[in-house]
Amino acid sequence: MLHLLVVDDEPYAVDYLVEALDEVPDLQLTITKAYSGREALVKADKGRVDLLLTDIRMPGMNGMELADEILGKWPRCRVIFLTGYNDFEYVQSALRKGGVDYVLKTEGDRAIINAIEKAMQEIRTEISEEQVLLRAREQLFMALPSLRRDYLLQLMEGETDSPSMMEKRFEELGIDLDPNHPVLAVLGRVDDWGKFSAPADRTLLFFSIINIAEEFFTPDVRFLSFLYDRTRIVWLMQPKEGSMENLGRLLDGCAEQIQMFCKRLLKIPLSIAIPSAPSSWELVGSRVEALKLQLTFRMGTGDEMLITEPTGEERRRSSCLFLEMEQLRSRLNRFDLLENYLDNGGKEEFVTLFRELFTVEVPLFSDGEGRWFGLELFSRLSAFFLSYMNKRRLLEELDSISIQAEKMLSPDEHADWNEMIDYFCKLGAVIADYNGQKQVERTHDMIAKVHDYIHQFLHEELSLTRLAELVYLSPPYFSRLYKQMTGQGLLEYINETRIAKAKLLLKTTDRKIHEIASQVGLESAPYFTRLFRKRTGFTPQEYRDSNKSWKGSFTGELHNSGLDAQRIDNMNKPTP
Which of 146, 154, 338, 405 could form a disulfide bond with 159, CB atoms 3.0-4.6 angstroms apart? Predict the structure, then answer.
């Protein structure tokens, strides 16, 4: 949303322009008013100014001087001058600076609105989609290695996309691999850093190892490598031609040579773990985890190991349980999404994602290794919810019966895996529901606070910026939130409140029209009259006269009914 600052030393002109702009559909502007150049500068210090609409001839600081000051603070601001015929010499000098337009005061509202819409379009063109995308592509090229690594690590953690989406992402990130075919994942580990002890030296070392490996595998292999963590490198490979079996044989023959060159040229020992078979993209992360375990159980000195993953029946016996476990471990990396749904009160979204992450085959967790893994998952889930609730002090807020805290702390409180998952899912639903209710309450309290302020300080200027500051929100966001929660714009509510109080003052006091205008926050009596008539169908004086006529007739009937004069006088007195 763009920010417009309207400046004129005539309050009526400012109020009139703001109301006219507020009635333009889909203008998408936040508007701030100022009645002098000095006041405008104060407001420009408090927030960004995208457009400045100002009169040229003002006492103290004129519009030309104000524009120079604003442009000094906000160089990308567009300036529109409201001018008379005799101001054109000033405008000509301003036009030479660029980003400046002018409207003759005699041209009317439509010309002003057109000038504002034109300036808005120029701003949007300046930051148009094409330019943003062009700059993004340039930045993407610079950040490509880092973005590529981040995406591949997400794949390692099990966050795979559809094949078509993966194809698109591979192309964007320059990944020369086919997402529709299996991939061979090889793991390398630096066993001893040697002279490469500094972080900058380690980065250089990693890229040196990658370059050595590329020399052996290209041009026969589609090959990509990235840093997996502080000590390990992952190589992802597919054959350009031929079969995976041929690629496996090539790998077996080259791995020892890669180790030899790393030792000779870089003076570092490198261990390599080779998989027994290629993996689908969904399971490549689990395969890398298995290779990590292979390298963990060192033999001999533990340096420069060259290990091949077990094959045949031995591997098949353990693969089902292991892959299931690794997939679950990778899903634990998505706690941030669950936390986001909890914070936003997204009860249904939380339940859907939680069930998706933790629905598994129960027999896998019935005994042996699977049982211990079930305890591991319980610990992770328990720690997540306990940490979440402690940070937000929810343990004191939520009913202890509804959360059954003992089940969050002890795995023995659950009969089986299903019961444990059901408990944590329901616990998350309770938290999300509570947070959602609190958000609604806080929003209503915030709006009530703003409404109280409006009623208390109706006689003062009630800018969007000032009201947003009361509730510590940005003006554009507060404006959208207010309309979303109440169904009307903030200015509309302020004007309704002003008219309601003006009606009361017209009915119950003998104050002059311009005094009532000032008391409801409108310094310009003509503008007050125009706004009042637009809202009620009467001028303020017509409204007062009609109420006096009604009151006089009603008072006469009271006299005829025999009520004493003192009680009638009391009824006619203004409300304090």
Answer: 154
Count of Cβ atoms closer than 10 Å to residue 416 Cβ: 12
Residue 349 to residue 362: CA distance in whole angstroms: 24
Q: What is the dihedral of CA 125, 126, 129, 130, to 10 degrees?
A: 100
**CA-CA distance, 507 to 501, in Å (whole number)?**
10
Q: Which residues contact 438 (CB under 8 A, 6 or more apart)?
A: 345
CB of 36 closer than 8 Å to CB of 58: yes
- What's the pLDDT at 564? 43
Both tokens of residue 191? 């066993």
Tell me the HSE value of 248 on the side-chain side, using a 13 A CA sphere. Answer: 13
In this predicted structure, what is the pLDDT of residue 17?
Answer: 87
- Do the bridges between strand 78-83 and strand 100-104 make them parallel or antiparallel, or are there none, so unpaired? parallel
Map tokens 């007050």 to a residue. Answer: 528
Is there a contact between 447 and 482 (Cβ–Cβ < 8 Å)?
A: yes
SS (H, E, C) 356-411: HHHCCCHHHHCCHHHHHHHHHHHHHHHHHHHHHHHHCCHHHHCCHHHHCHHHHHCH
Is 70 exceeded by the pLDDT of residue 54?
A: yes
Strand 184-190 and strand 232-239: the pairing is antiparallel
Is 216 within 8 Å of 258 (Cβ atoms)? yes
342 or 403: which leads in pLDDT: 342
For 246-304, write each residue's pLDDT tens digit: 888 888 888 889 999 989 888 889 999 988 888 888 888 888 888 887 787 655 556 78
- Helix 540-560 to helix 525-536 angle (10° resolution) is 60
| DSSP bridge pairs for 81 | 54, 102
Taking a C-beta distance cutoff of 8 angstroms, is the pair 288, 185 a contact?
yes
The more confident residue out of 541 and 47 is: 541
Reduced to 3 states (helix: H, G, I; strand: E, B; else coil), residue 202 is helix
The total of other beta-carbon atoms located within 10 Å of residue 556's CB is: 11
- Contact between residue 249 and residue 255 where contact means Cβ atoms under 8 Å apart: no
pLDDT digits (tens, 9 = 90+) for 342-374: 999 999 999 999 998 887 765 556 566 667 777
CA 64 to chain centre: 38
* Banded pLDDT at 558 (limits 50, 70, 90): very low
pTM of the model: 0.55
Q: Answer yes or no: is pLDDT of 24 > 90.
A: no
pLDDT at position 328 is: 74
Instruction: Report all structural domains of the chain as residue ranges with CATH numbers, in order of start.
Output: 2-127 (3.40.50.2300), 146-309 (3.30.70.1230), 333-440 (no CATH), 457-569 (1.10.10.60)
Mean pLDDT in residue range 92-102 = 69
DSSP secondary structure of 476-523: HHHHHHHHHHHSS-HHHHHHHHHHHHHHHHHHH----HHHHHHHTT--
Question: What separation in angstroms does the CA of 279 have from each of 6, 288, 292, 537?
Answer: 64, 10, 15, 76
